[in-house]
Amino acid sequence: MSYVQSLRCKECATEYPIEPRTVCDNDFAPVEVAYDYDQMQGRVTRQSIEAGPRSLWRYKDLLPIEGAPLAGQRSGYTPLIKADNLARELGVRELYLKDDSVNYPTYSYKDRVVSVALTKAIEFGFDTVGCASTGNLAHSVAAHAARAGLRACVIIPDGLEQGKIIGSLVFGPRMVKIRGNYDDVNRLCSQIADKYNWAIVNVNLRPFYTEGAKTHGFEIAEQLGWQLPQHTVVPVAGGTILPKVHKAYEELVTLGIVDDNKPKIHAAQAEGCSPVVKAIQEGKELFHPQKPNTLAKSIAIGNPADGYYVIDVVNKSGGHAACAADAEIIDALKLLATTEGIFTEPAGGTTLACAIKLIELGHISRDESICICITGNGLKTVDALAEVGNFPDAPVIDAKLTQFDDLVSQIDETTTCESKVSASSQAASNIAQVKCR
Ligand SMILES: *Cc1c(COP(=O)(O)O)cnc(C)c1O
Ligand SMILES: [Zn+2]
Questions:
Q1: Which residues line ligand 1 (CB under 6 A)?
Q2: What backbone phi and psi angles, to 5 degrees, belong to 402?
Q3: pLDDT tens digits for 211-248?
Q4: CATH topology of domain 110-208
């Protein structure tokens, strides 16, 4: 039993049965899962959700699944952290971090979308799943497929970080590297899905996959005590998570589960791949595809499938957009680590760097509630940091207390303390000063 009605075209509203499908036959616009919200009234409530498992499946009534979860049973329900140290540093009153860097089992937000997509793939009867990935999606598809007993084929651009490749291969999928960038990979995957009858999660299962991203937004609301943050800053790669966080907020309002505080959704991208941010800043409805050039590889998608809807949602909600240069991304990533003890990958550094700019520019008010979406884990991308992280070399000594004493006596306690504080404020103000070109 579910509340799912159909797949519905986002543009012309043509309805299709629940089947593997990406776009509408009439206009090639994406199709989206439609639900019967009237039937949900009084049945899907705070209480019904709170009675569910401590995983993303507590929101199963709002997901396009008929039976029990068949993959990712323990994914989701990641921490929402009140980031008081970082808030003090940035001069804001109420700051939260939704921390999907510790999502189970592969440490990124992708475990949400894959849990739903693979459950749906099994419901449809597929035995082989795959994906077009910038790294994290491949990890998640490979891991979930291993546990669910499905064959997996992950397709990635060549030139990804070594950590990103091993992090998939360990789960035993077939892996193919494509000479080219993510957009080339994606194009090939559309042809593969058609020809081989495989479930490519972000291609022919895309309407189901994307619904999983709503759970990031549901959790923010529930963990805030069933309230919506006034500002949510969301990274944009293919453009899945941002509109779906907004859809999650809207569904909770529709069901009377939270009050409508007109939440603003803001978009974050790396400057070296910022087609959607540029369009929003220039007041355009459509974006120009771009060739990515950034160390934030997991969000380097130059032709985002749902970029149009990102622009629409940001504008409709009254949000804004910012992009950050690679150096600012690294500064922000370090600031998050030194203030809150969270090690995110460059995608998370991007989101924080952009949030700082939006605060400094007055697009986010300092006394309103802010949630920053941290979507990936830094331990996967240490290679990227080793070259540009600018970390001091640790001194090497013999295992002798006298040598350690010498080292300690060279360190003047007060100056280190002050320089630590000023280093992090410096990072914040550096980021704030460099505006996106
Ligand atoms: C995939 C990904 C995103 C966002 O991707 P969308 O396609 O826009 O949903 C953000 N951060 C990380 C770390 C990711 O892997
Ligand atoms: Zn249509």
A1: 108-110, 136, 235-241, 298-299, 345, 347, 375-376
A2: -60, -40
A3: 999 999 999 999 999 999 999 999 999 999 999 999 99
A4: Rossmann fold (3.40.50)
